[in-house]
Design goal:
The chain is mostly beta strands and 89 residues long. Helix content is 0%, strand content 65%. The strands form 2 sheets. Strands 1, 3, 5 and 6 form a 4-stranded antiparallel beta sheet that branches. The chain has a two-stranded antiparallel sheet with strand order 2-4. The radius of gyration is 14 Å and the shape is globular.
């Protein structure tokens, strides 16, 4: 990606997701590799739009987009047609 601010979005749902004790980034969420996340879904939810904003400060950089589930039990679903990366002005 070229230098700039970006927003990574997806529609995510969960079923019976329980926290994993002592783990960062609990539940279902979005982030990029090398960064912690603040967004999370726990329990059972309908499709919910999650967002992760980040900035590329270098002239250009490879960025790994991550959709993850960190839990002791449960599952998540992601609408693949909702995965979007946009540049924010």
């Amino acid at each position: 990606l070229a230098a700039g601010k970006y927003r990574f979005q997806a529609l995510v749902r969960t079923r019976d997701v329980a926290e994993l004790e002592g783990d960062e980034g609990k539940g279902a969420g979005l982030r990029i590799a090398g960064n912690a996340r603040e967004n999370k879904l726990l329990g059972t939810t309908d499709f919910t739009r999650l967002e992760f904003e980040f900035e590329v400060t270098e002239e250009a950089r490879d960025v790994e987009l991550i959709v993850e589930l960190r839990c002791s039990k449960g599952e998540m679903g992601v609408r693949t047609d909702s995965l979007v990366l946009t540049r924010v002005e």
